Amino acid sequence: MSGYTIPGMNERDADKVADLLQKQLSTYNDLHLTLKHVHWNVVGPNFIGVHEMIDPQVALVRAYADEAAERIAALGRSPLGTPGAILKDRTWDDYSVERDTAQAHLAALDLVYSGVIEDTRKCIDMLEDLDLVSQDMLIGHTGELEKFQWFIRAHLENSGGELANRGARTEKGAARSAKKK
């Protein structure tokens, strides 16, 4: 701790906000690494479209990590961007799909995005009475994450509106179900 924080915010609230943002930072770092993993391991007829669709999202999520880290620093705290921090903050399993088809990876990524978005929305709720500036930052991030999940789901959706990974609870299960359809 540096001995200062945002003007108008007390130290206790700054600590709470920094802790919430640290979890977001770890989530974003994990997500951009997962997206890069998919980018390198996607195969099949839709390879190039998915391969090229992923990179702008990697850049966007890396920028979100940077914003979260810089906000933590502005609060007078030290952002942790190490692999150890990701593992310490992680409440989810490591991405489980390796080399596979575009549909398989997109089905698994849909579940990843659902988890990230759900956790981020919880964080947004917790920031309501603590820090509206940090809350606003995460609201903006969430809108873009939700839009990208829509891009993913457009690849998984049939003409009747059903997702190929419907009912799947694991990434590998989602990948398997998407390959069957």
Which key phrases capture this entry?
DPS_DNA-bd_CS, 2% strand, Ferritin, single chain, mainly alpha, two-stranded parallel ribbon, 181 residues
Your description of this structure?
It is elongated and about 55 Å long. It has helices spanning 11-41, 47-74, 83-89, 102-127, 132-156, 171-180; strands spanning 42-43, 100-101. It has a single domain, classed as Ferritin, core subunit, four-helix bundle (Ferritin, Up-down Bundle), CATH 1.20.1260. It has 181 residues and is mostly helical. A two-stranded parallel ribbon has the order 1-2. 70% of the residues lie in helices and 2% in strands. The termini are far apart. Helix 1 packs antiparallel against helix 2 (47-74). The longest helix has 31 residues, at 11-41. It contains six helices and two strands, in the order αβααβααα.
Which sequence of SSEs, written as H and E, runs from N to C? Answer: HEHHEHHH
The major β-sheet equals: 2 strands, parallel
Here the CATH topology equals Ferritin
Low-confidence stretches: none
Averaged pLDDT, please? 95
What is the name of the CATH class? Mainly Alpha
**In CATH, what is the homologous superfamily?**
Ferritin, core subunit, four-helix bundle
Q: Can you give the helix content as a percent range?
A: over 70%
Quote the distance from N terminus to C terminus. 53 Å
Give the tally of structural domains: 1
Number of strands: 2
**Based on CA inertia axes, which overall geometry fits?**
elongated
- Major β-sheet strand ordering: 1-2
- The CATH architecture is Up-down Bundle
Rg value: 18 Å
Query: Given the helix and strand composition, which structural class is it?
Result: mainly alpha
The fraction of residues assigned to DSSP E strands is under 5%
- The number of helical elements comes to 6
